Amino acid sequence: MKLVFSLALVMAIFTAGVFAQTAAELAEIWEKEHITNILPSNTRHKDLIKYLDDLRTLGIKVSDVGRSYQNREIYQLEFGSGPLKVFMWSQMHGDEPTATPALIDMFTVLQKNRDKEWVKQIEKTITLRAVPMLNPDGADLFIRRNIQGIDINRDALDLKTPEARILKSLRDTWEPEIGFNLHNQNALTAAGRTNKQAAISFLVVYGDAEKTETEGHIRNKRLVAAMTQALQNFIPGHIGRYGDEWTPTAFGDSFSAWGTPTILIETGGLHREDEMYLVKLNFIAFMTALKALADGSEKNFSPANYDLIPRNAGGQLMNVIIRNATIIDPLKPNGPTVADLGINFERRRDQLSTPAFIRRIGELTSIHGLEEFDASGFYVVGRFDPIKTGSRAELLFFRRDRTIDWAATETPQPEPDAIFSTGRWFKGEGVVPKK
Ligand SMILES: [Zn+2]
After folding, report:
1. 107 and 136 within one domain
2. Spatial separation of the C-alpha atoms in residues 135 and 388, rounded to whole Å
3. pLDDT for 336
4. What is the pTM of this model?
5. Same domain for 72 and 135?
6. Which range marks the domain in which residue 399 is found?
7. What letters, b where the CB count within 10 A reaches 16 and e where it falls short, cover 293-313?
8. Domain tally for the chain?
9. Which of 47, 187, 301, 416 could cross-link to 396 by cystine, CB 3.0-4.6 Å?
10. pLDDT confidence of residue 21
């Protein structure tokens, strides 16, 4: 038994080695050959159309498969002619854009490398179809829902949106064997009970409330194990497992129920890395899955490794924590309080200033800030309004060795030593030390 197992393993490693592209090689290919050059959050439907023109020029089949509610074109790309049907779609939530450029780059790299053995293998094993930017109206406004105000990902059964009807009909007329449902999650999601952001989370989506496990689900677990192993080279500890509560109106759950076992990929955030880094990680994940399917190496991965991925956890991370601030309310000068201020940013397009809000005030020792500052030497005053939970994080910092009469009404007002505004140091960066 042991010998057989070892032989099988040696054979498997050998087979995988023939076509295997390491994660590092995939990253290098992306660096050299990716064509997307606009940050995902700034990519509009018109930008997508330009990318698709480039793909058509390269020889990729691009079909117009319908119109959004506001009459924007929705497209499907196709590569390969193999028997295994793989279907991917991105950005059904308009403000969840990372996978859209990753899909474009994936088709580009596949098409440009058709002379390579590993791409030939994909081409003859798989037919790949993908819909980038299913919700172009939402993408142009950078909103979650479609322009009717309906969450397309809760419209799988009602089909009140044209976008949902297109998605369902693409599945029903082709009946793919694997689905990839591509989203973005809250950037403050943690990978397990840790301080690490879940930069990417996966879910093997079941097709019923009982979580009945089919062959397709077990294969998908192996695929996630393969993708996770590849990504661990870049983001160790930053991979999570998305919650698996049954949502029959959601498309992932419905695809799985209709016979297309689906993998949900949710891109989160990674502090100090830009959006294009996350595009690269998506690209590596997709290509790893395709290659593992094409060369059969997915069979070498254990579905049990999927179950070991730490679960997504919320509430442990905040964007900024200002520790030990002596909070002054000029209207109540007798009662300064010392507390930690927890600040979170709202999801926005990259170039807009970040709305930052005070979400927690108190002793936040169990919470980790992606950035932390030690304000123990400072008075902190609200720039426009008194500091309270829910107000904008517009903060003035005054050194505590200064003598300031907070009740005084005369001008000029005392000049602050540092100002925190729209999520950054507007004045006096470095004055309040980092923790
Ligand atoms: Zn989403």
Report:
1. yes
2. 37
3. 85
4. 0.93
5. yes
6. 317-427
7. bbbebbebbebeebeebbebb
8. 2
9. 416
10. 67
